[in-house]
Each structure stands twice: as C-alpha cells, then as structure tokens.
Amino acid sequence: MTWLDVVAEEDLADGAAALFRSAFGGEPDGVWIAPGRVNLIGEHIDYAGGLVLPFALPYATAVAVRRREDTVMRAVSTHTDESWTGELAEIGPGTPSGWAAYVAGVAWALQEHGIGGVDVAVHSSVPVGSGLSSSAALECSFALALSELFDLQVDRNILIDASIRAENEIAGASTGGMDQNIAMSAQPGHALLLDCLDGSTRQIPLDLDASGTRLLVIDTNAPHRLVDGQYGARRKSLDTAYAELGVTTLRGLDLEQTASRLVDDTLLSRVRHVISEIGRVEQAAELLDRGAAGSELGELMTASHVSLRDDYEVSSPELDSAVDAALRAGAHGARMTGGGFGGSAIALVPSDIVDAVVVEIDSSAARAGLPQPTFLRAEPAGSAHRFF
Q1: Which run of H or of E encompasses 129?
Q2: Alpha carbons 73 and 327: distance in angstroms, whole number
Q3: Which ranges of 340-382 would DSSP assign to H, the alpha helix?
Q4: Looking at 179, 219, 311, 320, which residue is catalytic?
Q5: What are phi and psi of 177, to 5 degrees?
Q6: Omega before 96 within 30 of 0, i.e. cis
Q7: Segment (H or E) for 36
Q8: Buried (b) or exposed (e) across 203-237, using 16+ Cβ within 10 A?
Q9: Helix 265-289, helix 295-310: angle, nearest 10
C-alpha cells in the first residue's frame, strides 16, 4: 500500500524557496500557497449549468516569487528539469507550452492590471495527472502572488477569472472554473457549493468527525489513454439536447418529461446523467447542512458513480475496481471524481475500517493486473494564502 504523505506548509515553502535560491540567487519576496481539490459530488455538470460540491485538499502548491525591474519572466519547478524564460509580451495561446503555460498564462491574463516581470520557483505536493487539480493550485498561488507583489487592488474573483483564462486560452485545457473557485474560496472543514449557472457560492459544513467517517482519495495511477474528443463529444451531445428541447440549460428540467422528448438513446443517457447528478448534489448539500456525512451521503456518491459509468460512460477499469472494492470492504459510498477515463476515485469510509478498505482496494487492483493505487488523506483544507 502506498500513501502520499501530506507535506507541511512550512516544508512546501522551504522547498520552493530553496529552489528559488538555487535557480536565481538571493531571496524571494515571498511564498504563496494554494491547495489541490477533490470534487465530493457533481461531475460533468459544470458546463451544463449545474451544481458542484468540491473541497480543498491538504496537498498544495507553493510558489516563491520575486519582482523584477524588467518585463522578463523566469520559471522553474522541482518537478521537472524544464525551465522557461520569456518576455511577458511573448506569452500567448500555445506559448509557452507544457507546465509553464499554467503559470505564464496567469501573468498574461493579469497584464492589463499592471504587472511586470518576475522570477518564480514552484514546489508542489499535489500529484500531477491524478485529477486533483495541480494546475489550478499553481495558477491560483501565482495569481495571488502577483496581486500582492504588484498591489493590484483586485478581489479574488478577478484572480479566479485570470486563472481560468490561463488554463483555457494559454494552456488550451478546458475548465469550467470549479478548480480555481475552490482554490481561492475554500474554508477548512467545509465544501463549496458552486452554482455554475450564476457563479454564486455557499460554504457547506463537512464535519467528518461528527459522523465518524473519513474521506479517502484513491489515485488509480491509470496509464494515459487517448481520449481526445471524448470530452468534446459529451459537450456536443448536450448542445444537441438543448436544441431538441429548446432550452439553454438542463437545470430545473424534469427527467421523465425530458426523456419523452428525446428519441436517441445515447443522447437520453447523457441527459439523464446531468439531470440526476444535479439532483444528487442538491440532496448532498441538504444532508451536509444537517451534519449527515454517513450512509445517506454515501448512497448518493455511489449512485453518481453508476451514472457516470453507465449513462455518461467516462469511467475506466481502474476507477471501477477502486469503487467496487471500497464498497465491498464496507465504505458508505464511493465514486470516480474528476474528468474520468482514469485519475482518482473518492470513498466515504467509517473511521474504524479505513485500513481494511485500503487493503481491499489495493488487493483488488493487484488481482486484476491494474496499477497499484496511491492513497491520499482528504481533510477539507483552506484557500490560497501568503505563507511569508
């Protein structure tokens, strides 16, 4: 069994600062930290005007940053030997490529507010490729750093928008904004109910101790699959449904009445997931408002996975193995989380059987010849902030 240890913020900050000194000489002006995230429930509905319920993880990204007197940006990371140096004016769609796009893109999006050149060193404990939003943790920590270093006098909504633009327009990765919102707005001990139709948010208490439960994140370490076009195909199917139904969102529609107006079985399956998932998020928020983070919440999580697997068809053998094994071992519920086709799952587990659940998930993967999962501890953490 492999656990990914939580790295203390002090150690994250020290790692970023040490890299900064090695790469650039001297001291950074400060270190800023932002968290990764996991979505408790509400998958593939952000772009359908739905509701999502993510929370921040204690796994985070630290950036050590120093202002420059010119318009040059230099970026390095402990996770790669590839560094990037360029003029702010050179940044644009596709330039730079790779990991540097996520940090340079933030600078590009904030140029209109009056930023200048910087040196930045990155150190992170958020696993890359796990679906736990390492990109938003990088974007949001750096956006906050730029805001404070250049005294931009903007609220966090501006920084959220800049981070989303960095990912969409410079890195070329599709995002609905859930990741950036939670990285900038999270509160310890809470999930964030984000309304993707109007952008409003509400803090939802996520008191695991009171319910005698733990949330376990399972990074399946699934190999990369060529799923290009799959996400676009799902979104296109919803656009087709909108046209057939004469609506601009599936929010608030009755599933039975909607089903009677759609003749294509695949289209109906996609729509059924979206409408039912929105309902599950609403129910989950109601349960958590009452302090109920036990079996009822678990049932909603499992139903979400079944819908994602069967109706939306975005699961994978690794994800199904993790979910099924968790349920066999006594978890209240489990589901894939994130975009799917690999990545991570999340399980709601009674506190006294966490070890048994981990053993069963690990053993199940081994029996099926699947990659050994990595397990993460999921305690709802806080938002982006300056460490020093």
Answers
A1: none
A2: 49
A3: 354-367
A4: 179
A5: 100, -5
A6: yes
A7: strand 30-39
A8: ebebebeebebbbbbbbbbbeeeeeeeebeebeeb
A9: 160
DSSP letters for 213-281:
EEEEEEE--PPP---TTHHHHHHHHHHHHHHHHT-S--TT--HHHHHTT---HHHHHHHHHHHHHHHHH
| Residue 102 half-sphere exposure toward CB, CA atoms < 13 A | 22
CA distances from 103 to 99, 116, 187, 205, 305 (A): 8, 14, 24, 32, 33
Q: Which residues contact 386 (CB under 8 A, 6 or more apart)?
A: 30, 31, 32, 33, 144, 145, 148
Q: In what order do the strands lie in the sheet with 51-52?
A: 51-52, 190-195, 201-205
pLDDT in tens, 134-146: 999 999 999 999 9
| Distance (Å, whole) CA 53 – CA 140 | 19
Count helices and strands in the chain by DSSP H and E runs: 12, 14
The pLDDT of residue 361: 98
pLDDT of res. 225: 59
Q: What residue ranges in 68-152 does DSSP mark as E strands?
A: 72-77, 80-87, 118-124
179 catalytic per annotation: yes
Q: Residue 386, SS3?
A: strand
Q: CA–CA separation, 51 vs 287, rounded Å?
A: 15
Residue 122 to residue 79: CA distance in whole angstroms = 8
Burial of 330 (0-12, 13-18, 19+ CB in 10 A): middle
**CA–CA separation, 227 and 219 (whole Å):** 18
**Each residue's pLDDT tens digit, 326-385:** 999 999 999 999 888 999 999 999 999 999 999 999 999 999 999 999 999 999 999 999
Sequence letter at residue 259: A
CA distance between the termini of the chain: 35
Q: How far apart are CA 199 and CA 177, in angstroms?
A: 9
